[in-house]
Write the structure tokens for this entry.
Amino acid sequence: MSNFRMTRFAVTMTAGLLTVSLMTACSSNNATTVEKPQTDSTTTTQADSVNAQDVWAKAAPEGDMSAMFGRLTNDGDQTVTIVSVSSDEATEMQLHETVMGDDGSMKMQEKGGGFTIEPGATLTLEPGGNHLMYMELTAPLQAGADSTVTLTFSDNSTLDLSGAIREYSGAHEEYVPDHAMDHGDGHDDHEHDHDSDGHTHDH
Amino acid sequence: MATEPQDKRSGGWSRRRFLTAGAVAGAGAVAAVAADHVLQGSLRSGKEAATTATQLSGDNSRLTFGRQTVSFDGPVQAGVTIQPQAHTRLMAFDLVESVDRGAIRRLMRLLTDDARSLMRGVAPLGDSEPELATVPAHLTVTVGVGARLIRVAAGESFVPGWLRPLPTFGIDRLRDEWSGGDLVVEVASDDLVAMSHAARLVTKSIRSLAVVRWMQDGFRHAYGTHPEGTSMRNLFGQIDGTVNPVPGTDDFAEVVISRDGWLAGGTSLVVRRIQMDLDTWDDIDRVGREAAVGRRLATGAPLTGTTEHDEPDFDAADSLGFTVIPDFSHMRRARSENRRERIFRRSANYEVMDQHGRPESGQIFMSYQADPVTQFVPIQRRLDELDMLNEWTTPIGSAVFAILPGCGPEGMLGETLF
Ligand code: HEM
Ligand SMILES: [Cu+2]
């Protein structure tokens, strides 16, 4: 379970449920964190308004695609828009949505205009739905390690998301590259469905 | 006169002690149960929650326990001390060849995150059957390690001297497929679905780091069929588990819990898969059966007493001068004059069918002790030399593990190895 700022309520409740005496001085290496970049201005940035929960990424070998999931809640009073995502662990990352293709199969594609979250709303990133896509991993995502990505909002503020890497076999939606974009990035050896342009999430 | 091991009279198993506040009586329990439901997204009303809490505090035979949880956090892993659940699956793994110190840290982190979530009744991240996680029914996930894992994580100097295969005993007919392992995970619950899901989840989580070596399933009476604290019956029909240190007592801490360095708060687990030949046992009449153990079948009382926890009188003789409790009886042989030579037994029954549907029955003998070489081995040696029960029992599997210390809410199992 990832503990982010927004989960303080839940965490407090949990603590109330513990009856066995607890050890002191335990390391906190299994807690995922959100690091908020410091901004000089006193105005609230979009990144400041967003809190993340249950962030995780799918384990995958170097060179493959993978995805990050979680829940992002807008606790501010302005609409926020995530316009891009990046990570040191991938040559490129994209904001993806999953849609039903003409043939009835699920396909994922870049989300035009990014992800918008209204005040008070939560964006759920999940297998088979919206997700943050690692297009080509520069290093393996190893189960039990953490992965970190950076979200950029429309006001240029940024938010680092970090979560546990977990084994997951689903999320095989076919990837349909945007026609305007060129992905000459050597994914041709990956699993293909019927569409010869399509990639699937590998694992 | 023989020694007097502490038995369960002085306290007895108490599952409540290890449960979350949901099972503790009082107003706080209502709040805690309600909170539990908030956490799990349950729509149950506060009134229902209150009813549940009331039921839990009483001796209600119709109580619903599916949502009851056992706290993961604590200096000793909960699976060592909780009253044994109805179902248990012991899973031994071999580490994959490439595993290094960093990989073991990742392994421990995965096991910790999974255990902590599953025991709370919350689906771990990436669980593809999350609904199966919401009825834990006292689920515990308990982790132990073998010498190789410790060596890779922390070096030879961290490997306890006792962490090696047991010496060979004359009665052993050990099979490789039931022996050894670099890692053990015990998943136990009072609900078989919860146990199965948790086992699958954990196995999947760590599949890049560890592969299954063996798995054994054990069972005991269903939760609620007997008052809390009742010793189970094994498949010979015997009350099994009477003379045992009591969790929560100083005696238990002394006999079972390690104080050594990184393992302080941990213990050792000896697993013996022991076949029990029910067909030849059938040939024995009740007098012979009771003599084989030195206790009565109906009550579990020693042959010299009337109730289960009566202290046996090993010197009492009948009119012919024979001791009432035979010298070859399992109890007589298993009891040492040396109080250090005691163990904490937590066994489960097993029954598996061969391809023709013929059952093989037995016991997954599990014992916990601070040091198996000085505590378990002398007992097993004596039983190897003489024990009437050997007539019908055959050990076919054997493994020894170091059960990791527990950890706090922010902690990680095995953290003291790093
Ligand atoms: C299938 C195998 C076994 C069966 C059916 C069995 C059964 C029993 C039974 C019915 C009792 C008496 C009640 C009680 O105190 O629990 C007992 C006691 C005991 N057994 Fe076993 N047992 C088995 C294997 C073992 C093994 C392998 C060990 C250890 C090496 C062992 C150690 C003990 C000890 C220490 C006691 C308590 C003795 C005392 O009164 O101080 N048992 N067992
Ligand atoms: Cu995608």
Observations:
- Chain A has two domains: 1-28, 47-195.
- The longest strand of chain A covers residues 50-58.
- The helical segments of chain A are 8-17, 46-49.
